[in-house]
Batch of 2 targets.
Target 1
Amino acid sequence: MPRLRRYRVFLIFAFIVIALLYHVSKNTQWERFQMAEHGTTGAHSHHKPKPETGHDSSHSHDAAGPDHQVDKPRPAPPKPNLPPPKQHTTTAPASAETSIKIPKLKSTDEAHKGAYGLPKPATTKSRKPPFVDGAFETPSVPIKKPGHGTGHHDDEKPLGETLYADWPPKQTDTSPAATPSAIHWRKPYEYYPIPEEKLIMLPTGRPKSIPKVQFDFSPESPAAKEKRQARLIKIKAEAKKAWTGYRTYAWGHDEVRPVSKGPHDPFCGWAATLVDALDTLWIMGMKKEFEEALEAVKEIDFSTTPYRNDIPVFETIIRYLGGLVGAYDVSGEKYKVLLDKAEELAEILMSVFDTPNRMPVLYYQWRPQDNEVPKRASASSGVAELGSMGMEFTRLAQLTGKNKYYDAIARITDALEELQTREGGTAIPGVFPQNLDASGCNQTAAAERRREREEEARLREEEERRVDEEIRRREEEEDRAAAAAPGHQHRDAEGLKTEGLAFEVRGEDGSAAHGGLAKRFEMSAFRPSPPGMMDDDCIPQPLKAPGYGSDSYSMGGSQDSAYEYFPKQYVLLGGLEPKYRSMHLKTVEGVKNYLLFRPQAKGDPDVLFSAKAFSPDGTDKALTYEYEVTHLTCFLGGMFGLGGKIFDKPEDVEIGKRLAAGCAWAYEVMPTGIMPEYAQILPCDSAVHCHFNETQWGLKVDPYMTDRERQMEEYEKNMAKWREDVVEAKRKNALAEAEEKRRAEEEERAKEEESRRPMNATTPETSPSHAGHDLKEKDNVPVGTLLERRGVIQEGDARGEYRGAAKAAEEKARSVEGALDFNAVPPRNEVWQRPLGQSFIPPEPVKPLTHKEYLDSQKLYPGFTTITDRRYILRPEAIESVWYMYRITGDPIWQDRGWKMWQAVIRATQTEIGHSAIFDVTTNEKHPAETDSMESFWLAETLKYFYLLFEEPDVISLDEWVLNTEAHPFRRPK
Ligand SMILES: *[C@@H]1O[C@H](CO)[C@@H](O)[C@H](O)[C@H]1NC(C)=O
Ligand SMILES: *[C@@H]1O[C@H](CO)[C@@H](O)[C@H](O)[C@H]1NC(C)=O
Ligand SMILES: *[C@@H]1O[C@H](CO)[C@@H](O)[C@H](O)[C@H]1NC(C)=O
């Protein structure tokens, strides 16, 4: 019994232990489960919206994670091609898409309801809404490592909960609004906010007096007025046509296809043409159309787009934001919806500035799953895109009184100014390279640091090895000591050690052992991370030129409007921010010293263009040039004109005139009367003594010019030999032909003979086919004939006939005419039938072009060396500068130039429903081939400038208005 009792005790004890263990393990599971639940508050949201991503497959190359492929994306509902409703009601059919909107940004109450009207989960009630009017919310959660995309959860207040408070929509809510058909933008957590007190404020005070821009026009004569108004009517009619085409075939879409009459949505599908054209409609007095468009503007939902994963920030700002603000301004600040919409859009775009250095992200991944992570500006940011946000945000700040909009762009200006002033910051003083590193991280220094860390890690490893070695040595020593004093302890220690637990049981040596472990952990924390991932991998730096081998400097695309905005910002801020003046003057100095050139062309036009310079080494020591003539660069005349007036630099106005005249000239000399998109021209050595040297031009266009004479001589030689060869071949062929003819006749005769025989044959039973072969009579041709066709043809008595035919053929072949008569060459299908021995006619040597023929084939106006892109895509820059020059100088020559351009453009581009970009301005065809594209700037800019050129000078006077780079007029401070 005592034995059993002992066992019972043991059993009870064992049971308790097992029960406890079970409990513990259950708890751990529970805890794990809890943690998982907890942790996914954020991650959950990353996953949930995925089935909703709904981007259509044509955009699948966009930044879609691998998970996107798992959930077959529902095709995005393309915007219905709605005909413009006859009677607009403010409440449009509330589709799921339109009824879900970003909040009005007005009351915090509304925001509390959650974005898009969705009920907020109860747990977040006490929290401040992420979307607050006015200043941004300062984060209450300190984020330790903003460099990590996922690892930023905080135990007390998981970041995900703040970020995704109302996403995904509660499953319990079954109302249609709760299951949105599209993903919507959500205001993300702001990682790098600017505290209210540190915002850069709009300059205040009385606007400075700025010299007058416009010419002092005197009253015009009745005849001049009549002519002008007749032109105005024509221009308005074309604008009306283009608008009607858009209204009829692409209402609510970005663009109309002017030939195929369909919609096209390259700019997120927020009705780019509609928004872009608003102020044009107003200026041209198309009030009815304006009001109708206004109703459509109300329905635009900037918080979603089925067309793109990224919002192109620059285009969105100049077209949409500029369009809304400009329309609000020109319509006398009466239509509040325009300003509201502008702010709605701006609120979304403000997130692009949430980077460590506040430089904007230029292609904004707006979908929540991409948007909720910390961002950094690109290491290759286009200068134009970076520098052309100023006017739109400045005007918005002025109209709303919210300094955050001004702050956002003032920091870019400051960064550009710093780079412009920095010694050696750019290769050409005052001018920026095409792309800048705006990431704010010094890659060179980061690489250096990585190398240092690797070295450090190596040293640590060495040190660790040394420590391990030391441990082993001591262990051995200890073992030896233990062996000297025998006992249980020795065995125990020995046994444990074999199980790998030696460190734990070691007595006095513990410190050394733990030191080794500690070192191991410390080292792993120092493992270098992939470049640019961790924040401490970013060694801050200001804006930077990319440097070695990649810097190009020009006033053309990707750079243009950054410079354009310096003088315009100065004007818009009433001259109260002197930075813009000094930045403009520096730029102009750089352009004059490095880029301007006079072209060398037929007729010696006294005009100027701006070249593109390349710096191989980040300095101006070894610049190379491309003497380009590009449509985009044509804005420069207007910029020099405006800057020259407001900063009182008459020389700049003169340069502006010659720049504007250059583009007008480039229009004039093309066969269609329109300048190409991109070309190159021969430069003059001197701007003063400049005469077109045709030889020099010919050499440039045709580097083989001198080789061509030798080629021609060679060709003549080859040609003579070829003629002989042809004569010989033809003679041979004629003989063979005669032989063939004779042979054919033989055959014919034999056939006839043959055919007679079987017809006379007695019965089919005796025919050879029936005897041995399976052949049957076919088309009444006796089988015997079929078998004999390839048999030996007997000599016939046709010698005389043969001789005659051969002689005639030979004679013909001998004559040169015959040799060159390609009809005399036998058609190809006959060749294979010829007997062996037939000669082929050798191919004629290709005649090389003469220098003149080559030049003609290039379709270049003498002076132009290449035309890389022969399109005209309805761009405005040339007429823009012509308009500036007219308003600045008052010289009617600009109106005449503009009218010529107008006639050419309309002739070449008009379609049934609007106007289309064309492929080739150098064609002589009456109707150049169309590209079927009518970008929104056609109505926003090109037609507006043409119209304003013939409108009274006080309509959009440059002394009252300043136009953004998309021709949207903003009111200047009085
Ligand atoms: C980047 O770091 C390198 C090396 O530390 C330094 O020489 C260079 O001046 C830095 N560049 C900028 C723009 O700060
Ligand atoms: C034209 O250019 C060629 C080639 O550069 C040169 O040889 C010739 O002298 C030039 N002619 C004139 C009139 O300058
Ligand atoms: C049959 O052959 C004889 C000579 O053998 C000829 O006269 C006659 O015309 C032939 N008949 C036919 C149908 O060809």
Note: Residues 707-760 form the longest helix (54 residues).
Target 2
Amino acid sequence: MLYLSTRGGMDPTPFGEVLLGGLAPDGGLVIPQSYPAIDDATLTRWRTLAYPRLAFEIVRLYAGDIDENDLRALVERTYTASAFGSDDITPVLALEDELYLLRLSNGPTLAFKDVAMQLLGNLFEYVLAREDRRLNIVGATSGDTGSAAEYAMRGKAHVRVFMLSPYMRMSAFQRAQMYSLGDANIFNIAVFGVFDDAQDMVKSVSGDLQFKKRYSIGTVNSINWARVLAQVVYYFKAYFAVTWSNDQPVSFAVPSGNFGNVLAGHVARMMGLPVRKLVVATNENDVLDEFFRTGAYRVRRGSETFATSSPSMDISRASNFERFVHDLLGGDKAWVKRLWRELGTQGAFDLAGTPEFARVSDFGFVSGRSTHADRVATIRGVDAGFGVTVDPHTADGMFVAERHREAGVPMVCLETALAVKFSDTIVEALGHEPPRPAAFDGIEAKAQRFTLMPADVELLKRYVAERCEPLP
Ligand SMILES: *Cc1c(COP(=O)(O)O)cnc(C)c1O
């Protein structure tokens, strides 16, 4: 399998090369040349596979330049009961007839991002060793992504992580998760400022091409293709868990921000998984809901982006969305390029009235949004009805899912984090603290290790240069 750019400006490139890269050279996103078609017999054969075997079968279709035996071992090492809490890795909980919760949040940092990031950590280590390369990851986080990346890369050879976070602006639990890591290749930098200050520092470091090249700087953001690919696996796994025959359709409801998670559902569907609906659920930051309702994609300004009780979905633009638009437009890369140029100059494009936009529903996509009050009410309802405490992101998905259920079609709601990470909203909804997994007892009391830094790019560069992985 070779990879192209959504905007047409990249020669066909193997998986091992796109793995460590970010955007395609023309500013587009990296996509596979085609989606492998999974026939009925293969689906049947995959039905009974354990998670790591299924992951191997799917990833190998897209990563032909990784030795099969190495890949099998790498995947087995990634998806273990000790890392993810059970042999199922992503267990499905039946809530009532035709309503399910897909539990994706039992990895090391209690959010679904672990499922992809843990594989990415092992893939990075493998490819860096194979090619005798080094990688220094510089990133900014407001919570979930940074900790998932650190737990994925900790102790890995040839890679170091420099993670910026806004000083004293994450929850005590999130701070403890990140800052208590003692691994020598992990550097936590607490920036005096807000998330955007930290993000701007990272952008200027990545924008300094000379510095970037000299110190082999990379990122692990949500546009990484391997992260999307790793997420495709649990759509198949969940489909098999709630059906007994390959002619049964299943719908999925996905709390969405950067569109990485639901894009993986789209890829699974394009491969032939019988997916009925992909329910894109947003919070008050509803740029995606607006597109699926109207055909207009209008990115928001900073001042139009709200801080909500589902902070991991507080986005002004959806970085993976371009991959779906590419497929919606029938792979017309020149058109994608024009649209994103328009987005750059006008901040919006509009597909309303085009035959292509009329086909959105053929791709299974529907959408909806929730408010804070909707999420609080859903957390209460799910607690009262099923005795399960869900986090505000998962509640968002369940709220929107309710409006898209159909008789005879199971609805699988993706759980994207555990409630313990967002205890303020749980206390507001239920009047008590959320349940906490035993392994996290007293985590706030552990010793913390981080460096305080003013929002100064030159200081950051010096810090990275002095501590980065030496090049071979
Ligand atoms: C990242 C995240 C999301 C959004 O996922 P995308 O792939 O960006 O759409 C939703 N919920 C939680 C808890 C997250 O961490």
Note: The domain at 92-109+225-430 is CATH 3.40.50.1100 (Rossmann fold).
